């Protein structure tokens, strides 16, 4: 009888979200709090700068950049609604939000994180399709991509609230997510679907689109090697950086989740579970740097915002009216007419890969947008 009471008491204590977990030492919680404080500060500031740039410079408001804006908005929401609570909880050494706060935390952070991941995959497709298609991006497609990312995220984050799996404390006891250790058929099936549709598929789309993008840019280099060499290097650097940072931030979290689900009980220690969680949250710091500051158009606006570059230095904006695409150029390689189209292709590639658009502050006049949008 006493053993049953003791067992029940142990279960109640282990499932309560109000009790502190002993998975990490006081020093461990302090170290995690330091990392989360860094991520919170720079993640918030980096994405805030991006939002300010969008508000101040009208030349940044083109369809493809709407996806960048969506990524920054979702990353900032992660900082505000997720990293903040986890940071404070690690300072106290336990989760401070209670059971309902834990479910809310798990839901909103999963939702915002998946929005960012899907937006990155859509962005890779838009970058490739804009370069290879005769028709450029438009606001209808961009808004469809933004709305689709939120709808897709809700499809996969609402089910744990209504019975298909559930949200609960992670092993460290200071943050919440999907209950990876639950062995019920519903939870296992949900975790498998989540891993496939919210990690494997986005990664596959990114790798395919960026690989095709680099291949087509390299085909242009076969025609004029000297002028295309810098473009090839720029695209290759962007592709490698994008994929590596994506995998570093999110793949460990997915692997640990699968180990916690299908491995033996206790296989994933609290320390092993908290490191991938920190890496996933660090994406809020990396994304603005990779997708914004590596873009010359955004970088010029950034310098002008902090008065590091005079506005006159960005004068001379040109409007590219060329409709020659990489696919069309590759077809012309075979019939020997590619060199005639090369000047037009060079112009478009300059706009796509090395934009030199002149950023202008917002004025009362409506923004004048060119048909071809820069995105790298």
TrEMBL record:
Ranges annotated as spanning the membrane: 31-55, 67-92, 104-123, 143-167, 187-215, 235-262, 274-294
Full protein name: Pinopsin-like
Subcellular location as annotated: Membrane
Alphabetized Gene3D superfamilies for the sequence: Rhodopsin 7-helix transmembrane proteins (1.20.1070.10)
UniProt xrefs under PANTHER family: OPSIN
Lineage top rank: taxon: Eukaryota
Domain called G-protein coupled receptors family 1 profile: residue spans: 46-291
Primary location class: membrane
Lipid bilayer topology: Multi-pass membrane protein
Regions of compositional bias (Low complexity) in chain numbering: 354-367
InterPro entries: GPCR_opsins, GPCR_Rhodpsn, GPCR_Rhodpsn_7TM, Peropsin, Retinal_BS
GO molecular function, one term: photoreceptor activity
Family according to the record: Belongs to the G-protein coupled receptor 1 family.
GO cellular component annotations of the record: membrane
Span list, region Disordered: 337-376
Keywords, in A-Z order: Chromophore, Disulfide bond, G-protein coupled receptor, Glycoprotein, Membrane, Photoreceptor protein, Receptor, Retinal protein, Sensory transduction, Transducer, Transmembrane, Transmembrane helix
């Amino acid at each position: 009888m006493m053993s049953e009471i003791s067992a029940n008491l142990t279960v109640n204590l282990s499932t309560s979200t109000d009790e502190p977990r002993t998975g990490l030492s006081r020093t461990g919680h302090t170290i995690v709090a330091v990392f989360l404080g860094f991520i919170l500060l720079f993640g918030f500031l980096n994405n805030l700068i991006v939002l300010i740039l969008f508000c101040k410079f009208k030349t940044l408001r083109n369809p493809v950049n709407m996806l960048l804006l969506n990524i920054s908005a979702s990353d900032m929401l992660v900082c505000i609604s997720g990293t903040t609570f986890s940071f404070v909880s690690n300072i106290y050494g336990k989760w401070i939000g209670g059971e309902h706060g834990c479910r809310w935390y798990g839901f909103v952070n999963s939702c915002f994180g998946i929005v960012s991941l899907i937006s990155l995959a859509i962005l890779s497709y838009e970058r490739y399709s804009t370069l290879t298609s005769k028709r450029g991006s438009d606001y209808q497609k961009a808004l469809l991509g933004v709305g689709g990312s939120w709808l897709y995220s809700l499809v996969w984050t609402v089910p744990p609230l209504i019975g298909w799996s559930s949200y609960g404390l992670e092993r460290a006891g200071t943050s919440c997510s999907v209950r990876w250790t639950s062995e019920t058929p519903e939870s296992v099936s949900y975790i498998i679907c989540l891993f496939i549709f919210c990690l494997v598929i986005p990664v596959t789309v990114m790798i395919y689109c960026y690989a095709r993008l680099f291949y087509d840019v390299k085909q242009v280099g076969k025609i004029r090697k000297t002028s295309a060499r810098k473009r090839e290097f720029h695209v290759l650097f962007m592709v490698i950086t994008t994929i590596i940072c994506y995998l570093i931030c999110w793949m460990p979290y997915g692997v640990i989740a699968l180990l916690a689900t299908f491995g033996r009980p206790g296989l994933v220690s609290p320390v092993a579970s908290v490191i991938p969680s920190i890496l996933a949250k660090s994406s809020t710091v990396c994304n603005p740097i990779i997708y914004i500051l590596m873009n010359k158009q955004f970088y010029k606006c950034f310098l002008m915002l902090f008065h590091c570059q005079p506005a006159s230095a960005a004068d001379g904006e040109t409007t590219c009216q060329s409709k020659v695409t990489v696919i069309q150029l590759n077809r012309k390689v075979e019939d020997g007419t590619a060199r005639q189209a090369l000047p037009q292709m060079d112009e478009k590639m300059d706009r796509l890969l090395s934009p030199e658009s002149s950023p202008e502050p917002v004025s009362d006049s409506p923004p004048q947008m060119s048909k071809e949008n820069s995105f790298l």
